[in-house]
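Section 5.1 Outputs to date
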Amino acid sequence: MATKSDTIVRKSIKKAKKEVVVQPTDTAKSKEFKPDPQKVIWMGAIVPGYGQIMNRKYWKLPIVYAGFLGFAYTITYNSIRYQAFKNGYRDIIDTDESTVSYLQILPKGSTIDDYGGKAEYTNVLKTGMEKYRYNRDLSVIISIAYYGLTLVDAFVDAQLYDFDISNDLSLNLKPVLIENQYGYRSSPGLQLCFNLK
């Protein structure tokens, strides 16, 4: 037979099970995420791709870094080729017979005579030197523009992060009479209304 104390304990256990513990909500955790565009652009300028990380657009990181790696490869390749052609051109026009770096540029099995002699090969070296210098400089300019594009992308993403693109957009087209400010008759026309709701 249950004693009075057992009944009291059972009732208190049932009450404890029914009580719901309400924990205070932390306002910092419940606050909706919104990136700061100014901070995003400054951090993206310091560390390339960090603006995309701050916007939580992680899928853009491979694109950003693949672009930078591609430009780094292009700049390096064109710089190496430019230096080789520049050294070869300097060596072929000087009077020192011991400097023959221009022979290293020739494909295997080829000679200067295959290019029409020393004068023609000198023009080939000069043209190659100018071409690779132009490509290197253009690669540097395009890589700087790409860097700016990543910053613009991060800024625009942060600015438009909470922009609502819902299905509740409306476009109304209706006939109207356009009032003339000079006192002439009203003219018929069309009025276009675009409402964002």
